[in-house]
Structure formats: C-alpha cells, structure tokens
Amino acid sequence: MEARRVGGAQVNRETILRRCAGLYTLASLGGLIVAKVGSPLLVGAAFAAALWGALPDEKREIRLPSIPDAAGAFIILAFIVGRILSGTDVLAAFVEGLLIFQASRWLFGRDTRDLFILSGVAYVEIIAAAASTTSLLFLPVFVASTLLTSVILFLTYAHEENRESSTEKRTVPVSGSFLGLLGTAGLFSLLITGLIFLTLPRLGVGFLSGLRDTGRGKAAFPGSVSLEEKVFASRDKSVVARLKGPDSLTPPIYLRGLAASTFDGRAWLKETGRFPARSAGSRWFIVSRRPDLSLEEMEVIQEGTGQASLLLPPGTVEVRWKWGRLSVDREGNVYSPLPISRPVKFRVSVSRKGELSLPLKSPSRNGPDEAVPEVIRKLAEELKLREVSPEEAAGRIAAHLRARCRYERSPDRVSLEEFLTGRKAGNCQHFATATVLLLREAGIRARFAGGFVTSEYNEVGGYWMFRQRDAHAWAEADLGDGSWRVVDTTPPSTGSPPPAKVSHFLDWVREAWFEYVIGYDLEKQVRISRSVMKKTASLTKMVRREGKKFIAPAALLFVFACLAFFLKRRAPGGSAPGKRAHHLLARRILLPVVKKAGRRGFRKREGETPREFLARLIRGGLLPRDETLRFLSLYESLRFGRREGGVEDLRLLRDSLLRHLSRRTG
User: Fold this and answer.
1) What SS3 string covers 284-316?
2) Where are the domains of the chain?
3) What pTM was computed for the model?
4) pLDDT digits (tens, 9 = 90+) for 559-587
5) How many CB atoms lie within 10 A of CB 559?
C-alpha cells in the first residue's frame, strides 16, 4: 500500500481517503440535523459509526464480522417499508434506511469500494436535507460537502490507480502543490455548482413545498381570542416577519394577522366563511379600490407560521401573490391556499389613509346585553362618547384607559369587569377589547385586531423586523372616513433592550439567503440575465467607442511581454532551446519501449505514468529490475529536472531494454 508523508508521519493513501469520507459523512449528518429529517437516534448512531470507522485498521481495537450484502439489503428494505406502513413520511423513512446502511458500512466495511459507496450515500443524504430545509445553517454543510466531493473523487481514483500499478510500498511526501491541487479542485467544484445554480432554468413552482403544513408554526392565531388566554404574551425573540417600505414610515409599525368583530362576552370569534379574492394575474384585490387613493408599495417577508393567515400592514388594498389562489373573509383577513411553513415574500399596496372596507360585518352597536358588561355602558356614559366626534371619542377612551389601567404582559386570569373596576391591570387584549366595546357604545363601527407591532429597524438590511415577542392586540375603527384606522390604547411598555448590532447583521445574512438562494426563481433568473446582457452590451459599446485610445498602449505592452519572455529563455537556468530539446528527446527515447511492450500485450493505460507503466513491465517479467530503474531515474531527471547531459546514456539504456523485449518476444 502506497504511503504519503504528512508532517513526518507515515499516512497511507487509504487512510487519507477514509478520513475524508468520514468528514463527508459527518457533513451529511449535519445537514440532516439542520433539516430535522430522520430519527435523532439513528443520526447519532451513524455519527458514532462514522467516527469509529474513519480510524485506520490498526487503531481499531474491535474487529466486527462482515454480514452478507443480500441480508443487509433485505433488513433495510423491510425497515423502510415498515416505517412507511406505520405512517412515517416517505422521505424520512428512506433517510432512516440510509442511516442504517451507512452505520453498518462504517462498522463492517473493509476496502476502498466501501468508502466510495459511503460517500455516495452521504451525497444522497445531503440532497434529502437540501430538499427539506431553508435554514441558513445548511450553508456551511453545503460548502463543506461540495469542497469534499471533488477531493474524494480524486483520492479514490488515485488510490485505485496506485494499487494496480505500484510495485512496492514507498513514501511520497504530501507537498504544498498536492494540497493546493485538492483545494483548487474543491473550489472549482464549488464554482461550477454555483454556476449551475444560477443558470439552470427554474420551473417557478418550488414555492409549493414551502406552503405545506409541518406543524412547526411560530405566529399562529387561534380561531378565537379569549381574554383569559395569554395569546400575545410571548417573550420569544425569533423573527416572524420583515417589512420593507418607504422612508416615510414612522414607528410604531403594525402587521395584522387577525381581525374579528364577534364578541361573546369572553372571547373574540374569528370569521369562518371565506370566499375567493378578486384577481388580475398575480394581483389580488383585498378591498374595492378607489381611483382617488394614493398607495404606497411595501414588501413583506413572512416566516413560516404553520397557518394560512397572511401578515399584512393595515390599509392593504392589493397583494402581489403568485403561489395559488388567495381567499378572504368578511373582515378582510387574507389566507393562502395552504398553510405557510417556510418563508414567503410578497408585495402589497397600502393606503396610508386607512383600509377601505368590504361589505362589513363589524357592527356599530354592541351585541346582546349579556355579551357586554354593564360597566362598558356606564363608562361610555361617563365619558360622554356620543356627544363628541369619532376621533375625539377615541382620544377620550385612550386617555381614560392609560390613566386608570396598568399594563401587564402576563396577568392572571382577568375578566373585563375586573380589568376596568377591580385590579385595573391587564394586557393588550383587555385594552383592545374595552376600546372596541366603548367605541361601539358611541355608535362607532369598530373591531378587534391582532398581529405584531414594532419599532425595531434593521439599518443593515433596510427593513423593519417583527419578532414573536412583538405580538400585540389593538382596536380598529371607522372614524368617519369609511376606512379602518388603528386605535391603540395600550400604554407604552418599558419593552426589551435593543438587540446587538451583530444580530441585525446575521438577520440580514439570513434574509439574503432567502432572497437569493431559497427564493431564486424564474422571475429573478430572467431579471438577472437581462441585467447581465444589458451591462455586456453597454461594455461592448464603450470598448468600440473608446477602444482606439487603448490600441497603442496594448501593443507596447505586448512587445515588452515578448521581450521579457525571450530574455528569460536565454537566461541561465531559463527555458533555453537546448533544455527544451532535452525534455522532448527524453520523451521520444521512451516511445520505442512503449510501442514494443504494446506488441507484447502490455499497452500503456490512459493516465498511466512512465514509472507506473515500467513497474508493470517489471512485474510481468519483461524487463530486468535494476536496469529499468536506472533508465527511469535518468529519464525523470532529463524529462522533469534541470539536467542537460545524459541523453546518450539514456539511449544506451533504452537500447538495452529493447533488446530484452526483443529476446523475450522472439
């Protein structure tokens, strides 16, 4: 077995290949962990088996017996079928079968063929992980696996060729050029992968995989919002949405995911009936559009919520959505065709004057007496809400609640009456509910709204960030202009400390990952292609227009380059004609030996070096060992070294080898 010297230690080729295959396997298992595909127990078992199997044979204290391939294949196939029949996802069952196969090969495998098979299994696992995750954490897994792919292919080929052609164990130091070759091959593989990603035509329907229900939602809004539930009391810092808008936006910024008008005395009930939104291509009209509206364009990036509700800025009139038919209810809540479990990006047109209304269900009067506490009616009379304009009534309600009631993020179970007359402490649900009911007592149409509110701006990416902890409830009311206006009476809280700058940078990296990798579709591909063609055309025009100015300097530079090359060839130790002739002569002297050996059935293989070829002739008994090695040493010094003498000696040795071949041929 040929060995290579690394840092003075003896390391054979198979050990290098085994360790690279082990790293490749660990990278693939890391991808499965990021994508959360397969059983964690099986992933851990495969991880441990790969660590143990990557050790050289002499380091393994335990020798495990091999098992027949047919028996192993039958066991794994039976396991996959059983998992599918038990209700497991097909992809997860397939990956778990691969993990069992992978662990067994690392434990029982013995030769290079097993390492090559294990690398192929790891490649399939990486593909499965890539199809199951949009996480930025998959990026280092992808880069590492891509770099290792070409390295493993190169090492496998080199090992197999060496095993067939070497005559003895020998030590060859791993030089910087060898490591540079491996690194260059890996970078080239990464570059080719990137070019394929950019140029491979997109079908434009990959988003459908991001609209399936995985049950891993973050910002889910229930069918009803009870005053006794802590729906908007999360302290989770995870980002649920981002909003890019005009510079005129000022905090607080709202995103609504829920609007409800029916209050049963304890909870707000979400509208159940839905109907298709009107559309024109990928433009979906949420409300009737008036020609006198001035609209602002915004962009929403919504993380996976596990539900179908879209998070929209209040006042949204139109949504540009290309992923299936949108539906709306009578409150203006907008739903995608499937639950959203991965990030989606869409543009919206927003009326800054407020949201125009559909045929509304929201009443301007409260419901039956038993649905509204008597304290609401008394408080409305006390504030004389019917005697003032809608805007002033909203102002009086806000002033009263902020002065008399205290905000608590997570209070104990508190009824509306206790919130207004007892402990006078509650969360945003209590403030919003009291506001809606008081507005209705004043004859003002109002409804309950829930979503997110933020004042956090990411200066790196140029967008507003909404976190899970920003969940909030507020009231929306028609204050006389026929549109919904935000009426938020919840007192400002001390809030959380601002996040570190590095968190904004990392979030921008994640957003760029989604924008240019996960969200890279046919539309972006066409746009980038047109941009490249446009810039190429403008560059061509500039060269044609300004090219005459550069002809003379370019010609002068070419002359100097030719002169420098000629002087270098004439310099001592340079590439003089005599030296080049010795290189060519050495190669020509070898050719008769190759031809005569070919007539004996020993043809030189493609990619086989002269040393490997002559070693085969020695093993085949066609050439004497010592004389052939002297010929090879002189040949290599003339062919690749700086030696200029010895051509005649090489010819004499060549003639002697030819005589040996002729005698054996005859």
Assistant:
1) EECCCCCCCCCEEEEEEEECCCCCCECCECCCE
2) 3-174, 224-230+237-492, 522-560, 577-665
3) 0.64
4) 777 777 666 655 544 444 444 455 667 77
5) 10
